[in-house]
Amino acid sequence: MQAGKVIITAALAGAGTFKQNNPAVPYTPAEFAEEAHKAYKAGAAMVHVHGRRDDGFPTYEIERIRQIHDAIKQKTPELIINLSSAASLDATPEQRLAQILAIRPEMASLNTNTMNFSIMDRKNGTIVFDNVFTNTFTMLQGFGKAMEENGIKPEIEIYDIGGIDNTLLIMKQGFFSKPMNFNFVWGVAGGQAFRAGTFDTMVHALPEGSNFTACGIGIEQFPAIAQSCILGGHMRVGLEDNTRMPDGVLAKGSWELVEVAVRIAGCLGREIATPDEARKIMGLHK
Question: Which residues of the chain are under the pLDDT cut of 70?
Answer without folding.
Answer: 1-2, 286
